Amino acid sequence: MNHLFEEINFVENPLYESIIADIATKQYSIVEGFFTDDEVSVLRGSLLEKYEEDAFKKAAIGNRVNETIIKSIRGDVILWMDETRASLSEMIFFDRINDLVNYLNRTCFLGILQKEFHYAIYPKGTFYKRHIDTFQNDDRRKLSIVCYLNHEDWQPENGGELVLYLNENGQEEEKVIYPFPGRVVIFESQIIEHEVKPVDTKRLSITGWLKTR
Ligand SMILES: O=C(O)CCC(=O)C(=O)O
Ligand SMILES: [Fe+2]
């Protein structure tokens, strides 16, 4: 019998258990300090370096059609991350995410087989209007994950709050979340409508999705 338990080799992780419990009860979870101050700082450096190299601009060129329509909905600039060519700091990021995904797959039967993440910068004055993260004919996105990489002195007055629109017994309720560095927000992609309020100071993050298939 002992032998059997050794093979299972499962260590309960209290942080992940609290995320799972949150999502099961309210469809979202706010995790403080998912990344340490040092990790946030290294990831922020990596994001800003790529921004200065103009890599974000190049990523946007594919979307030039409908540019004005898109800008009235969302004003962020993004750069998709490539795990197969990850830098040292990006490896730390993906190690954390993969650890969470493995735990979710072992405990929740979510069947997460794919993921996609991008850096995002919201320049001053930009926003992302109320939306849902799944496309009409593609329901593979299960969980949305937003990781904030702002500077340590980020203030609520800087704007850029993430607002989740929750359904509380038929009544809509707004959950306002400030993008403080190190904070990670996870929510059900297919259920929770949300928006990013106008930003007053350049706002930095990594956003991604855990997907089936
Ligand atoms: O940055 C955030 O807080 C949310 C971003 C978002 O909703 C998205 O990229 O779909
Ligand atoms: Fe979104």
UniProtKB/TrEMBL annotation:
Signal peptide stretch: none
Record-annotated Fe2OG dioxygenase domain positions: 108-212
Entry-linked InterPro entries: HIF_prolyl_hydroxylases (IPR051559), Oxoglu/Fe-dep_dioxygenase_dom (IPR005123), Pro_4_hyd_alph (IPR006620), Pro_4_hyd_alph_FE2OG_OXY (IPR044862)
One Pfam family it belongs to: 2OG-FeII_Oxy_3
Transmembrane helix among keywords: no
Cofactor(s) listed in the protein's UniProt record: L-ascorbate
Domain of life (superkingdom): Bacteria
Keywords carried by this UniProt record: Dioxygenase, Iron, Metal-binding, Oxidoreductase, Vitamin C
The protein's name: 2OG-Fe(II) oxygenase
Organism this protein belongs to: Corallibacter vietnamensis
